[in-house]
Structure formats: structure tokens, C-alpha cells
Amino acid sequence: MEHLCLYEDEGFEKLLPLVYFRPVFELLCGAATLSERVRVTFPEAELHLLVRDYLVESTRDSVPATSCNDLRAIEGSALFLSGRLLDVERGDLPLEGDDEVFLCRGQVVGFRLTGESLRAWRDRLAAPVSKAVLEEIRGTFPAREAFASLGPGEALLATYPWDLIEANPCLIARDAQLLERPGLASAPPGVVVLGEEGETGTAFSAGGARLEIAGSARVDPSVVIDLTDGPVLIGEWTVIRPPTIISGPCFIGDSVVVDGAKIRPGTSIGDCCRVAGEVEQSIFLSHVNKHHEGFIGHAYVCSWTNLGALTTNSDLKNNYRSVRVMVGGEEVESGLLKVGCFIGDHTKTGIGTLIDTGAVIGPFCNILGGRGPTPKFVPAFSWDSPDGFVEHRLDQAIENARTVCARRDRTLGAADERLIEQVYSLTAADREPKG
Fold it and tell me: Can you tell me the mean pLDDT for 291-311?
């Protein structure tokens, strides 16, 4: 039996607040997460996981794997891959072979250990795997660039949250070919389809535009689906109501309701979301509620977030300069003209909320609407008030989460509460007064 292990490294910190409640390989990008792509690409391999300690319990419940944080379950040899990889099929990453280190533009993104080497290093590998350990492995075994075919500007490794947004259109097109699922051969009667099956303008289209509608989905007459620039994938039990316009490349997951929305190219919508208004090149994880008018562009929105009516974010500065984003307490130049916002789990915005360009809003925040743009950084568990932000009490945050989950026929269990408590503790320093 071959073994493959997805590991978290210290780079997870630059992907906060998106990964407070999940390992990095469970971030949606394209039409799948990395763990889902790995299972499709390496179906013969047993999957093992290395995650931050406080995520072990939730990861064991949510990600099918042979082991989690127990490398003793691996015997013989194993291919280890960084959880920050966005695609695993474009490079040369064979399961079998000798001890070897794989690089992406000079960064260690994986390695293969066999026999004695595996036994010697097994006890030293703990998540997050440190940069020092990765560099030591690189200095011990032969190393090579595994992704030499990447073109300028192509991001295969998620270093910052905006890398996921930039890669999303290409990966949707890739996943349309990789993740074959049965669906309707043509659109239902009355649905307007633009664009031809064939060549498209989207990189990595791997064969051209494609429409895939799950058999249980409902796409009503007068809905417009535009395949000119890429595929459109619509999941099981999803309902698309007019006057919706969906432009590919676009992925819409299972049990989603799209209500008269304008969904622009490069957008991925996770399971059980409610979407209206305008969404452009953004990623929604599961159970996001944006059921009203308003614009969300070049944004990543985590699960159980509720965006109040007319909530709108800016994704372009008036001076057309590179957008700067707060990462780890410092402003980082994205090098991009268009960067929207990054919103953590269980955050709520009031009606008329305006979100500043490149804003970072942590999990379990409450934002008042009808005022000026939000701050560029809002710490986790912050409750907006007329006098400024105060701390969102932990007991109230958990009670609110329990109520929200129940509205979607979900139960907030004891393990979920422990995870919320852990994140509350981990983010305490961000809420301390600065001065």
C-alpha cells in the first residue's frame, strides 16, 4: 500500500483568518479542496494528515483519512505534500521512488521518504512543520524543481489569501476535467446558454468550456449561463432562479440557492449557500448567506458568515495602485490591482455595510452597517458598537453559533464548542488595546 501525507507548515499563519477553523488543505479553491484533489489524483494511496494540534478532533470528523497526527501508521515509504499546494497534477510528484525533495520556485512543497529515512524522520515531523525542519530535509536528500512548467504569475502554492482568489478561475477550468461527475447533457428548457463547447480564453481550460448541471439541480427558465470564458459546474439539489446570470469559469456546490444573482467569472460557491446580488471572482465556503443585493468581489468568505442587505466591498483603489493587506500585524503589498476582503467564520455584517479594499475581518465579528468603510483589520471576536469595537463574549458567540446552525438543521456539538473556545484563546492578543 502506498502512503501520502498532507502536512501543514508554518505558512498557515499568512493564510489567517481563513484557516482558524480548518487545516490549509481544506480551503476551497476551484471546485475542490486539495485533499479532494489528492484523493482523485492518487486513488490507490492511503491518505494521512498532519495538522495543528487543536484541529485534530475536527479534522478526524470531517476529512476521510487513515490517520491524523499519527505517522506510526505509515510503513515503507510515503509522499509528503504541503497542504498549501493548490494543484497536485501539474507537477511531477510520483508516489513511488527514492528519497527526494520537491521544490516550487525554490520553496519545499513536498518530499518522499522511504525505509530507514522515514523511520529516522517520522518523530521529527509535527505540524506545523517548521521551516528549519524542511530546510534540513532539503539539505539531506536530492532536491529538484517539480513545477518548472509554471508560467509567469501562475500561483501553485498559497502563500497569501489572495493567491487562492487569483488561482480560482484556472482551477475551476482544471477541475471541470479532473472531477468527472454525471450531470445533464444539456441545459433545461428555457435556460439561455451562451458560448460554444470548445476553445476558451481561460488558461488551463484543458479542452474548452463545459456545462455540467447535476441531475437533481433545478435551473429555472430565463436563467442565463455564459460559457464564453470557461465552464460552469452546478451541484446536486441546487436551485438557480431567474433573473440569474452565471458566467464561467464558475463552480456552484450542492444545495445552494441562487436568487436573481449576477455571478461573474472566477467564482466558487460552497455547499448550502444562499446567494443574490453581484459576486465577482470570489470564493464562498459552505453555509454563507448573501441573500440580498450588494457587491462582493475578489473576496474569500468563510463558513456561516451572514452578509446583510447591501453589504458591499471595494476591490479596487481609486488610484489604481497595488492593494495592501494586513498579514500577521503588518501591511503587505499584494502586487495586485484587485483585492477584495477576507472574512472569517461566523461573522455577520449589518445592512449597508461597506468593506474597505483589502480588509481582513476575523471570525465571530459583528459589523454595524450604515457607516463609513470598515477598518482594514478587525480582530476575531469583535463586536461593533456606536462607541467602537468591544470584545464579543465567548458564551454569547457560542450561543449565536448554536442558533445559526439550527436554522440550517445543523447541530453545534461539544467538539465545535471546544474549537470555538480554542480560537477565542488563540486570538486574544489581537483584541488587546494597542498603545
Answer: 97
370 and 198 Cβ atoms separated by less than 8 Å = no
What is the residue type of 81?
Answer: L
Q: How far apart are CA 118 and CA 99, in angstroms?
A: 9
Average pLDDT score over the chain: 91
Q: Where are the beta strands (DSSP E) in 158-210?
A: 192-194
- Report whether pLDDT(148) > 80: no
Helices 414-426, 394-407: crossing angle, 10 deg rounding: 140
* Upper half-sphere CA count for residue 179 (Cβ side, 13 Å): 26
Q: State the Cα–Cα distance between residues 158 and 203, nearest whole angstrom.
A: 18
| Domain ranges for the chain | 2-145, 186-431
Q: CA geometry: angle at 178 spanning 238 and 303, to 5°? A: 45
Cβ contacts of 377 within 8 Å, gap of 6 or more? 326, 359, 360, 361
Closest CA to 309 of 351, 343, 349: 351
Q: What is the pLDDT of residue 230?
A: 92
Which CATH number is 186-431's, of 3.40.50.920, 2.160.10.10, 2.80.10.50, 3.30.70.270? Answer: 2.160.10.10
The residue count for the chain:
435
- CATH fold of 2-145 reads Spore Coat Polysaccharide Biosynthesis Protein SpsA; Chain A (3.90.550)
Out of 169-178, 252-261, 282-291, 388-397, least confident range: 169-178
Percentage of the residues of the chain whose pLDDT score is greater than 70 = 93
What are the CB-based long-range contacts (under 8 Å, 24+) for 279-283? 280/315, 281/165, 281/168, 281/169, 281/338, 282/165, 282/340, 283/28, 283/29, 283/164, 283/165, 283/168
Which comes out higher in pLDDT, residue 385 or 382?
A: 382
Higher pLDDT, 435 or 297: 297
pLDDT greater than 90 at residue 118: yes
Cα four-point dihedral sign 40, 45, 51, 56: positive
- The dihedral through the CA atoms of 285, 90, 94, 134 has a sign that is negative
